[in-house]
Amino acid sequence: MLQIMVDLETMGCTAGSSILSIGACAFDPEENWVPDIPECRSLDAVNNQSGLFHVNISLEDCQSHGLTIEAQTVNWWLKQTENSREYLTINPQSLKEALCRFQQFCFNLKSASDIPANIWGHGASFDQVLLGAAYKATGLVQPWNQYTTRDTRTLLALVYPELGGRIPDEVWPNEVRGLKHVAWADAWVQAIAINNCYKRIQIKNAST
Ligand SMILES: [Mg+2]
What we know:
By secondary structure, the chain is α/β, with parallel strands linked by helices. The chain has a 5-stranded mixed β-sheet with strand order 3-2-1-4-5, sandwiched between helices. The longest helix has 19 residues, at 95-113. It is built from 8 helices and 5 strands, in the order ββαβααααβαβαα. The protein has a single domain, classed as Nucleotidyltransferase, domain 5 (2-Layer Sandwich), CATH 3.30.420.10. Bound molecules: magnesium ion. Magnesium ion is lined by residues 7, 9, 181, 183, 186. The site of magnesium ion (MG) has 5 residues, from strand 1 and helix 8.
């Protein structure tokens, strides 16, 4: 069954923080499937690839909706690569527009399978929580519910207990090595990591 991995790049780690990017990737862990990634890594090429999604968001617009900025996270961004920081600045949309586009991405996948897809985030208290707060701040409806929320770190910690919920280094494909903290690429790698977990412990028919 198709599922959705979401990854956010943000300006804080708590609900109500500003969101700089939403990235997502459709995947099917039972079939060990993720979308191919485009040769060209431009934003348009990524969004033209079925099953991939990326939108950057105006920080000013986040602030105008009352979303916050945490100094610790700003300091963290200052230490990240130029590549990942630059990607955040490409074609930023208003918060509402970005959230509507993500709704549409989820909706399109839902109509393809007719079953609401599980939404996975990297950790139980980050992506869906911050994204849910942004939907609330704009008055828009989040495209998932509490029954379809899934968390990568719990499964990763079970399969690779020595890593404490982190993604094993060998999972990072070379094609996206320079794209760490680019939301669509993070989502794609996290989806591959979950596919690997399913393979390792031979989970069958566990999508729901
Ligand atoms: Mg990320």
